[in-house]
Amino acid sequence: MTTSVWRHILRGIKSSIIAPPVGTGGTVSAEYCYSVYLRHMVIADQHGLATSPKTIVELGPGDSLGIGLMGMLTGAEQYYALDAVRHAKREENIRVFDELVKLLKSRSPIPSGGEFAEVLPTLDDYSFPNKILNEFKLAQTLAPERLSRLRLALESELTEGPIRYLAPMGRTNELRDNSVDMIISQAVMEHVDQLQDTYSECFRCLKHSGFMSHQIDLRCHDTAPEWNGHWKYSDLTWRLMRGGRPWFINRQPCSAHLGLVKQTGFSLRAEIKQPGNFGIAREQLASRFRLISESDFQTAGIFVLASKPA
């Protein structure tokens, strides 16, 4: 084994003894949350889906609830944030909320390039989506009394009201059948261990004609020098690398996600694949990945948009 692999194994062993620190290192930037949510909405609109969801579920919000707060600031009435660990702090949520309000009031373009160059999915046009968020709609959603009500909700424990934080352990059982308009996630589904159960729960709680929108990062997440290097490790090595961490990456390729989406009963509306460059050679694959398709072998990420049939 290389020095790098041993280093990851030692981190895994350490995580079995000492609880990993809370925090994911993402979503604390209001501009990032603004960019992600609007990208998902623009693509949903391009594929004929409703872009005024009233009830939103976000999977894995991370260090702030900013992506879901964008949904609330643009018209949603109920937001559920589901996470395996409760990362987001009240102060961060309020700061991000206030900054999102400023971005929307100024109708800022969707951030891209520079520090946002790797934010996916990509768009052809990053101008503010006036078609989706016209002046009349924003005047309603950003009305002072509405902003005050939402900000006040953020100062609570988020166990009830228009913003509910269902963590730890992402309690989907608290969501009623056929009650949700949209489910959104950004670089989260690659961390889910029980993928089939999670897609089934998405299907259960979505309304008919509701949709889910997931950007899935299929890369190694710094577990190897190559983007697809996580597929070269044996199952034993991978278990040692994970250790006691409550979330890691599930190593499932693109086809596993697409297959489960269709198997669950969703209508696939869009699949936007992102290719990987400078990966490992096929002969370096661990035995369980040896028969992976060429398409999977070259796909480093995918945006999945799927609706529940009417």
Could you characterize the architecture of this molecule?
This protein is α/β, with parallel strands linked by helices and 310 residues long. It has a single domain (3-307), classed as Vaccinia Virus protein VP39 (Rossmann fold), CATH 3.40.50. Helices cover 35% and strands 16% of the residues. The chain has helices at residues 3-17, 30-46, 66-73, 90-105, 135-141, 144-154, 195-205, 235-242, 254-264, 294-298, and strands at 55-59, 78-82, 163-166, 180-186, 206-217, 267-275, 299-307. The longest helix is centred in the N-terminal third of the chain and has 17 residues, at 30-46. It starts with a helix and ends with a strand. The relative contact order is 0.15. The mean pLDDT is 94.
Number of helices: 10
Enumerate the spans where pLDDT stays under 50 for 5 or more consecutive residues.
none
CATH architecture: 3-Layer(aba) Sandwich
CATH superfamily: Vaccinia Virus protein VP39
Q: State the total count of DSSP E strands.
A: 7
Strand content: 15-25%
Give a concise summary.
It is built from ten helices and seven strands. By secondary structure, it is of the alpha/beta class.
Describe the secondary structure blueprint for this structure.
Layout: H1 3-17, H2 30-46, E1 55-59, H3 66-73, E2 78-82, H4 90-105, H5 135-141, H6 144-154, E3 163-166, E4 180-186, H7 195-205, E5 206-217, H8 235-242, H9 254-264, E6 267-275, H10 294-298, E7 299-307
Parallel strand pairs: 1-2, 1-4, 2-3, 4-5
Antiparallel strand pairs: 5-7, 6-7
